[in-house]
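[step 3/7] fold_predict: job queued, chain A
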Amino acid sequence: MIDAEGFRPNVGIVICNHKGQVFWARRYGQHSWQYPQGGIDEGETPEQTMYRELEEEVGLKQDDVEILAVSKNWLRYRLPKRLIRRESMPVCIGQKQKWFLLRLRCKESDVDLLKTSHPEFDDWRWVSYWYPIRNVVSFKRDVYRRAMNEFVSVVMPFVKSNSGKGDSGGNKPTSHRHKRRGNKSTYNRNNQNKQRG
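[step 4/7] structure written:
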């Protein structure tokens, strides 16, 4: 589903914890990290797509999160020319995204990156709020900055109210190499200081 300008409707998902850190995931078999996102199917609302992608990519259900905010407008980014498939019709030149800010309500161990047979991610970590803007692939950076600037007034008061629970700004990312839910050791935390964004 591509609009008249060549942009595919999409949702972006920012999940935060009580420290104001955000969920940062590594694409399956790659060294690229990003927020969960996915295309809106015909007949779906952005919110329906968000919950579907949340379950497919992160293994969480509606009751596992709370919606804190939604971007007011569609945020667009263009794909680099090398990634545009000119042979496909209609040609997709980029994504237009509705962004959702969610707060995790469940246990971290409920995250299941292997929920489907075709996982999007194979690792995840909590990172400080502004970390993704500096570390996402360059052509998504402006959209990430705009989404995070829009959500900061929602996240930061919440962080200040929980400031006694730990620092959220300067901590090193904590990596979670994922195994299937149900294993006694759901996450391997031995590589906390070895992972790069």
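[step 5/7] annotate
The mean pLDDT is 84.
The two ends are 32 Å apart (CA to CA).
exit 0
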